[in-house]
Every structure is written in structure tokens, then in C-alpha cells.
Amino acid sequence: MEKILWQHIQTVKKTSPLVHNITNYVVMNNTANALLAAGASPIMSHAQEEVGDMVGICQALVINIGTLDPYWVRSMILAVNKANELSKPWVLDPVGAGATDYRNRTLSDLLALRPTVIRGNASEIMALAKANVSHTKGVDSTAESNEAIDAAISLNKEYGSVVCVSGAIDIVVDNDQTLYLRNGSPLMTKVTGLGCSATSIIGAFIGVVSNKSEAVAAAMSLLAISGELGSKQSSGPGTLQVELLDKLHNITETEFMNTIRISRN
Amino acid sequence: MEKILWQHIQTVKKTSPLVHNITNYVVMNNTANALLAAGASPIMSHAQEEVGDMVGICQALVINIGTLDPYWVRSMILAVNKANELSKPWVLDPVGAGATDYRNRTLSDLLALRPTVIRGNASEIMALAKANVSHTKGVDSTAESNEAIDAAISLNKEYGSVVCVSGAIDIVVDNDQTLYLRNGSPLMTKVTGLGCSATSIIGAFIGVVSNKSEAVAAAMSLLAISGELGSKQSSGPGTLQVELLDKLHNITETEFMNTIRISRN
Amino acid sequence: MEKILWQHIQTVKKTSPLVHNITNYVVMNNTANALLAAGASPIMSHAQEEVGDMVGICQALVINIGTLDPYWVRSMILAVNKANELSKPWVLDPVGAGATDYRNRTLSDLLALRPTVIRGNASEIMALAKANVSHTKGVDSTAESNEAIDAAISLNKEYGSVVCVSGAIDIVVDNDQTLYLRNGSPLMTKVTGLGCSATSIIGAFIGVVSNKSEAVAAAMSLLAISGELGSKQSSGPGTLQVELLDKLHNITETEFMNTIRISRN
């Protein structure tokens, strides 16, 4: 398994998939940098005049509702419909699910279009599955990842999406298989947008890897291990952001294989 | 006084207030990182469908007009009205006050809603108070902080807002008290958005500290001291941005107490 | 020539030109930081209520279509018309030219307003000149700079713009003169928005240097040399972004003169 994930990481670096992001304002810059460091090519575009065309030239689509508004939501729907029409994979990041009715209604519309992958923290995944009605505390995770597994399984069954619950342990749910990835660093929660970076990197991997749960596991392990190794050279969240990008770019097979802690159930 | 400010810094770290930001595109990422590093939780949201709900779940609201346009201004007004209705504190950052009539008109509307705190550089505070009709040179400070004290006092009297004039010396005006904070580094003027970060950190502090002028002084001293200590390990504005975030996260009581230079008049 | 370019760099630092940017969401933060580090003052503003006023107080205007949409395009046209009316220089960054019909139509409208300078990668410049109908691969360069010289010459002849084709070799075309700048580092392609930063720095230089091709060559050499020197102290794209900003701020005449490799034809 670990070896296959490393091969997928190399596939992304070699093929440099073009990833179309309709994402939030806060993270556009570090998301683009994370995609470049991982070897992919980012596109950010939201105009209704061109989102369909952009989907047409990209390998995958990333939808992140972090700073949604009506114009951007219409663009997201247009882009997703085009991706579905062209059978291109897309990943949904339900930022702040449960925080407002507007987010919930928007997410309901997007879920109905059956994302290839959904990635969120435990609060978001539970809100998405209505398995839990507690309020999301902003965009941070307030529930432990493992409490959200039932929610992930129900989303997977209902929409066919591979579901990734990220947190101290990252969990990937698809059909009857659940993967547990135990990498990362607590300091990563002090850098804004690493969850959003994870989602975009997933976009890169599902664009070129046919096995979607492997693609998600490869993307999440690349980011978590880069953060874990980067945090050892960091004195705080500022340096971590820098070191993480370096490691996404420079990580060696030996580093990856010696650090990854993954199991399945 | 210094000891009380440190306690407020600890209060923010312990309670992790949720801060709703309607701010400008340029600084969203580093503002979010500054809030996380200081121990708060950032939310960025501007859709009219949800800004009221977001205010409802947050401890404080930050309004920054840096890249204003009519949609965003309406969202700001909606959010401020909700904050006032719920008696939640809010802080106004009048970026570029005086540069255009549109900014001045917008700021006039926002001032009428009586911000809990106003933070700007000397040019902006003077433009806001109409104490000075010279043109703002962009978003940098062209007038010395101390020249703006009269403007700050007049704003404080008219709107009841605590007014912070940031610059080489940060000044906090409230009622008959004026605080002078002599920390920071000239290199901080070469990093974009540190003023905006200051405003957002003020948002975090007024969300959980009842004495608003102490809250502002604590926020400003945390940022200025983090910048001052960070600049000693920096070879330019790139490293300063990184070191400042690390220090916001890691600063110790000894570092803080040994560095702070605050006086009142 | 090299000495003159260094003098122009000093002119920017001494005069600190105010540069109005209507640019894309992805790069606003690092563009603003690059302008500050180079000694200029950034303004970012897009509201139709004020873009004309902003042009009025700035020395130059930067138009970058990276995340264009109809509202922003109208703002761009308004701002450019004002710049032309006031005889202020402006630079066009045709991000993603050729990728979609919408971008091509928008660029056609902007070209008709005769930019003072155009800066793009080889793919973009060729798409702009319709010299090549291959699809742009996102915002990265897929064609070698020197293949785009014919396209640059044709744009220069048709619109009178100084044209800069950036890439492994940066090329500056104006009238019968072509400059070749051989600085930089391959790692710069892994940091998002350095092309956009180049364009904004060009904005600063054309704002205060009357010879526009010298202004472009000075801006491009400053950025490329800062990246080249910065990359020597970098272990990846994360550190490069930081080191590059430091070097833009700190570069000495000796470093500049010992590193620059420029020739004309």
C-alpha cells in the first residue's frame, strides 16, 4: 500500500495535472503554491463565461465553499455540471458546513451532484451527513475524526463519494474499506488553509490516479508527512508554512516510506 | 498595566474567540494566520445570505474596507447592524480613508454605526476626523502618529469608539486617557497587511476582554512586540512575516514583559 | 546598460511610486509584498466608484486578468481609460491568454487601449498575437521564450507596447531593439505569482522611469536576480518566496552588478 501511494505521488509530479479551483479567497495563494510544490498546475477561475471551458482543459475540479456568495455558487454549479458531463473527477470541500443555513443549502445542492470525493474535518462531515446538529465552530475541527466515521460511511453510501475526514488521524472511507493515516503535526492546525490545500492536492491526484481512494490516501499522506517533517524544522506556524511547501517539493522516497503510518480496517 | 495586558493575551489563547472578518482580499490569508497564531479562530464570510448568522456565532466582528465594492459594503452594513443588535463588539479599519470620495462616503456610513474600536494609521485617522484634508498616500502612513492624536480624541468623543493610531508609536485614545506603545520595527512597514492584522487581533481581544482600551493595548502590544522580536531574526520583509507569525504563537511572558514599553498620559 | 538599470532600481526606492493594481485574487498578497520590498507603494482597488480616482493619485496602473469576471473587467476598462486620459503608463498581464474565449475577448478589448507594456510568458504572448493557436496550459509557460519573439515584435508593432516575454530567458522587445536577460532560477516556476509580481514591479518602474524598455529591463532584472540569489539560500519553493522578498529589499549594487547577464540584439 505505502509503495503504491508513493508511486501515485510520482505520477502527479511526472504528469503535472491541471487542476481547476473554484475556492475561497483566504487560501488561493497557498493552495496554488501547494499544488505547484506537489508538481501539479493550478488554475483559479470563477467567471461564468469561462468555468465550463476551464473544466474542459483540466484533469480535475476543486470546489471549496469557504467564502461563498451567490455568484460563486452559480459558477460552482456550472463547473460541476460540466465536469459531470465530461466524466471528470471533482472534489468538494464543505468549509464551515453547519455554521449557517446558507452553507447547508448550498452544500445540499452540491452533494446532489455527487462529488467524486468529499474532504472535511469531523464537524463538517457530520454536519454534511446531518449525523450531528451541533454548530461548527468556524472552520476548525471541534469533533474528533473517529466520531465522524459513521457520517462518512453514510455519505459514501448515499452519494458514492470517497469521503475523507481529516484531523489528528486522517480517515478515508470508501465502500467497506476504511483507511487510517496517522501522520501530521498539531502545529498544522495553526496554519490557515492546510485543509483547503489538502483538498486541492486531492484534486491533483484524482485527476491522474484511477483508484480514487488510493488517490485520496496518497494526497493526504503527502501533505501530512510533509507537515510532520516540516514541523520538525519549524519554530512556529510561520516557518511551518514555508517548510511544508519545501517538503512537498523535495520529499524523498526514503523520507516518505520511513514516516508513513497507514492502516486499514 | 503590563501584567494585565499579558493576562489578556493569555485569555485570548485560552478562550480562542471566533472572529468574523469582512476584510480585504490582499490580507485575508495573513490575517487568518495572525489570528490563529495569536490563539483565536478566524472566520471570513461576506455573503449577505449569511453574514448575520456568522455574527451570531462569533465573539467579535472586524470590518476592513481595503478592497471595498458595493456588494461588500452592503454586507458590512448588514453585519454591523446585527452586531449592534446583539451588543457584540466590532472594530473598523478605515483603509485608505481620504484617498477617494467613495471610501469617505462608506466610512461615514460605518462611523454612524458607532464602532467599538477604530484602528488606522495617522493619515487615515486624520482623514476620518476630517481634521486633515491632505490626500492619503495609499495605505501607508504619511503623517506621524502623534499628529493624529487630536483627530483620535475627536473621533472618540463623537462616536464613543476607542481609537488606535498605529505607527512608529501606537497610540490608544479613550475618554481622557491616552496610551503610548513604543514597540515594533521599521521593517514592519515593508510587510503588507500588518495594520490589517493588528485590526483583526484587536477583534479577537475585544471579543473576550471587557475593558476595551486594555483589549486594544494588549492586541497592539502583542503584535508590535512580536514584530520587534521577529525583526531581530530577520534579514528582510520576507523572513519578518514568517518570524512574526512564529513569535505571535510562541511569545513567552518573560519576552513580553522585558520588551514592552508602554506609558500613559 | 547594467549601471543604468541599477540607477532605475534606486529611483524606485527613492521615489516610492504609488502603483494601482487591478489584479487577481491569487497573487494580491505576494504582489503587494513584492512592491513594498522593491520600494514602491501598492494600492489594490477595483470598485467602479473609485478606480478612476485611484488612477488619478497613482503613478502607474497594473491590469492582470488572472481571475477576471464581468465586474472586474468593466473596472479594468474604466481604469485604463482614465490612465490613457491622464497619460499615465499602464502594464497588461494577459494571464491565461488562449485558455478560453472569454479571456481572448477581454484581452482583445484591453489591447485596443494600447498598453504601455505587456508582460506574459511565451504561451500567453503567442496567444495574444494569434501567432500560435495551441492551448495555453493554465498559467505556466509551455513554449520557450525565444519562440515567442516574433509574436512580441508583432504586438509591439501593432500596439506600440513594450513587450516582455518572461521565461528561462526574459526578453524585452521595443522597436528594433531586443534585450535578453539571462537571470533567475528554475525553482521560481514553483512559486505562484512571480510572473504577476514581475508585472507589478514593471508598473512601479514605468511610473518613474521615462525610457519604458529600460524600465521593463530594470524591473525584470531586479526580480530575476533577487530570485537567483534567493534560490541559493533556499531548500524549496517555500523558502524561495521568503528569500526573494528579502533580496528585493536588501540587494546591493555589488550583488546586482556581479550577477546580471543582459545582452541586446
Automatic annotation (TrEMBL), chains A, B, C:
<dbReference type="Pfam" id="PF02110">
    <property type="entry name" value="HK"/>
</dbReference>
<comment type="pathway">
    <text>Cofactor biosynthesis; thiamine diphosphate biosynthesis; 4-methyl-5-(2-phosphoethyl)-thiazole from 5-(2-hydroxyethyl)-4-methylthiazole: step 1/1.</text>
</comment>
<dbReference type="GO" id="GO:0004417">
    <property type="term" value="F:hydroxyethylthiazole kinase activity"/>
</dbReference>
<keyword id="KW-0784">Thiamine biosynthesis</keyword>
<keyword id="KW-0808">Transferase</keyword>
<feature type="binding site">
    <location>
        <position position="119"/>
    </location>
    <ligand>
        <name>ATP</name>
    </ligand>
</feature>
<keyword id="KW-0418">Kinase</keyword>
<feature type="binding site">
    <location>
        <position position="44"/>
    </location>
    <ligand>
        <name>substrate</name>
    </ligand>
</feature>
<feature type="binding site">
    <location>
        <position position="166"/>
    </location>
    <ligand>
        <name>ATP</name>
    </ligand>
</feature>
<protein>
    <recommendedName>
        <fullName>Hydroxyethylthiazole kinase</fullName>
        <ecNumber>2.7.1.50</ecNumber>
    </recommendedName>
</protein>
<keyword id="KW-0479">Metal-binding</keyword>
<comment type="similarity">
    <text>Belongs to the Thz kinase family.</text>
</comment>
<dbReference type="InterPro" id="IPR000417">
    <property type="entry name" value="Hyethyz_kinase"/>
</dbReference>
<keyword id="KW-0067">ATP-binding</keyword>
<keyword id="KW-0547">Nucleotide-binding</keyword>
<feature type="binding site">
    <location>
        <position position="193"/>
    </location>
    <ligand>
        <name>substrate</name>
    </ligand>
</feature>
<dbReference type="InterPro" id="IPR029056">
    <property type="entry name" value="Ribokinase-like"/>
</dbReference>
<keyword id="KW-0460">Magnesium</keyword>
<comment type="function">
    <text>Catalyzes the phosphorylation of the hydroxyl group of 4-methyl-5-beta-hydroxyethylthiazole (THZ).</text>
</comment>
